[in-house]
Specification:
alpha/beta; four-stranded parallel β-sheet; seven-stranded parallel β-sheet; about 550 residues
Length: about 550
């Protein structure tokens, strides 16, 4: 029979409801009888002790809040009786020891990837079109229309099929008429397109940050080559982009075609040259074939979004175990979303392999939090209405569960936004907590696959890297099967251990990285790209 409550850490003074509980329910928990005093939805928390105003609330073994009013044993925690509170952080006080997981079955595992001349290995083979400035978005859209229609990279959607039925006057209860699927001209290359709202009009620092992000996309081994459009007069000059790319690699081994409209003449002439040159590059890139590579070549982004009260006890720790396995074999997991590390900073500081990285992590965290406060907000405003509705009522509570994605392995590097991953092992990357901004940034830092845990559901994808969704609960997996790749609900039901679920996730990652399975986000054509705009507009 399924347990009705779970205490995540021995030091916790609250428990998570695994099922809906009702006023008057009598539960046997930890050898005692607990009387539920208020209706409590699954995923929310019940107090295991009498809490007075000002008393500390612990979950995952860390401080996640303070009681605002009396909360008796069996009382439910809410936004009315609890406020955000997190542990203070000192400088590095100790180095956390790590017992690596058994990697006997993983150390010799390979995936079928795209080998690049610089030694990186991609999980996809993409020719990428993007602008340096938003003024070129229309030209990117024109090129997208031309290449997608002529190279037939997209299947006719069910929505298009439905509209065809409506145009032909077919009754609604009639089966949708299937539109004959067009065959792709090339079978080993994808053509993807990015647009954005940056590159000019803001502060110069934003242009430089965007240049680093875009350079990271070009350097990502999932990209075989790129076509870059510039207007000419914008803040993000071609030289700034080239310098950003040179900052990652001194010798670019892939074709990067750059065009500046103000130096080209008419739009038609420019587009004609772009199409001819890019087509030749795409034809050549189509000849690159998948070959075996050690899974140590994988760079795996760790993301969460639409989190719920189960995320931190099923999907996130399972992904954390997969992260530990990958780190142990020499791969590179990437943990980001700095606002969602609030309250667990000391643990992360202690996991840094050197004092310099520990200091840099805290400098980045404090600078980020100060910028939020200066803007009239703060990390405590991070939980969304959906998070709160499903049990994550303080940022520290959300963060303590979100950080579980990073497992327990030592932190090998601290990266600011736009910096590229070069070290094996766990990397911490400074990004916002916003799902798409964070995913966008991790791929720009070299992630070749992203694993995205969710409790409420999100369609988020990426133009060049597969994004796999792990549901924290089976209800979500059943309700939104078109966006969920993996269901970790078995952990909640006690049918699977965290370790078993983590191994299942890593196995799925290997299959997707090899092209044997297509991620649901890729099937949906979900190509999300949002750069982080840190400054103001001028």
């Amino acid at each position: 029979m399924i347990s009705k409550l779970i205490k995540v850490h021995p030091q916790d003074n609250v428990a998570v409801a695994l099922v809906d509980l009702y006023t008057g329910d009598s539960l046997q928990f930890e050898g005692k009888t607990l009387l539920v005093l208020d209706d409590c939805k699954a995923k929310h928390k019940i107090s295991l002790v009498d809490l007075a105003p000002g008393d500390s609330i612990y979950m995952y073994g860390v401080l996640v809040g303070k009681a605002l009013s009396q909360i008796p044993v069996g009382g439910v925690l809410t936004t009315q009786n609890v406020k955000h509170e997190a542990n203070s952080v000192s400088q590095k006080t100790e180095t956390t020891s790590w017992t690596a997981p058994d990697i006997t079955k993983w150390k010799d595992r390979t995936f079928m990837g795209y080998h690049r001349e610089d030694g990186q290995v991609g999980t996809a083979n993409v020719w990428l079109f993007f602008p340096l400035v938003f003024c070129e978005n229309r030209n990117i859209e024109l090129l997208k229309d031309v290449f997608e229609k002529e190279l037939s990279f997209h299947k006719a959607s069910r929505q298009r099929q439905l509209l065809r039925n409506l145009i032909q006057g077919v009754p609604e209860d009639t089966a949708v008429v299937e539109i004959e699927e067009e065959q792709a001209i090339f079978d080993n290359i994808e053509v993807k397109f990015i647009t954005h709202q940056g590159g000019c009009g803001g502060i110069r620092q934003d242009a430089v940050a965007l240049s680093k992000l875009l350079a990271g996309y070009v350097n990502n081994p999932n990209v075989a080559g790129a076509t870059v459009l510039s207007l000419g007069c914008q803040n993000l000059q071609i030289d700034i982009f080239k310098n950003a790319l040179a900052g990652i690699t001194s010798d670019v081994k892939k074709p990067v075609l750059i065009y500046e409209q103000q130096a080209e003449g008419t739009v038609d002439a420019m587009l004609a040259r772009i199409i001819k040159d890019s087509f030749e590059g795409i034809k050549k890139a189509n000849g690159i074939q998948r070959k075996p590579a050690s899974i140590a070549k994988l760079k795996m982004g760790l993301e969460c979004g639409g989190s719920d009260g189960f995320s931190g006890i099923s999907a996130n720790p399972a992904l954390g175990y997969a992260s530990d396995l990958l780190a142990a074999v020499g791969g590179s997991p990437i943990l980001s979303e700095f606002p969602e590390l609030c309250g667990v900073e000391q643990e992360l500081v202690n996991r840094c392999v050197n004092d310099e990285d520990a200091s840099r992590f805290m400098q980045l965290m404090k600078a980020y939090e100060k910028s939020a406060i200066d803007a009239g907000s703060g990390f405590d405003m991070n939980p969304s209405p959906g998070n709160i509705k499903d049990g994550l009522i303080t940022d520290a509570m959300k963060s303590a569960g979100a950080a579980k994605k990073g497992g327990t392995s030592p932190i090998q590097a601290i990266l600011d936004y736009g910096e590229y991953v070069t070290k094996p092992g766990l990397n911490l990357l400074c990004t916002p907590g916003n799902d798409v901004e964070s995913t966008t940034a991790m791929v720009g830092s070299g992630a070749t696959v992203v694993v995205f845990t969710t409790g409420l559901g999100t369609p988020t994808g990426n133009p060049i890297a597969p994004v796999l969704k792990v549901a924290s609960n089976s209800t979500l997996a059943r309700r939104m099967p078109d966006i969920i790749d993996i269901d970790s609900g078995g952990v909640i039901r006690g049918e699977k251990t965290i370790e078993e679920m983590g191994e299942e996730i890593l196995e799925y990652v290997i299959q997707v990285a090899s092209g044997a399975i297509e991620s649901k986000a890729d099937i949906l054509g979900q190509d999300d790209f949002i750069p982080w705009k840190r400054g103001v507009s001028l």
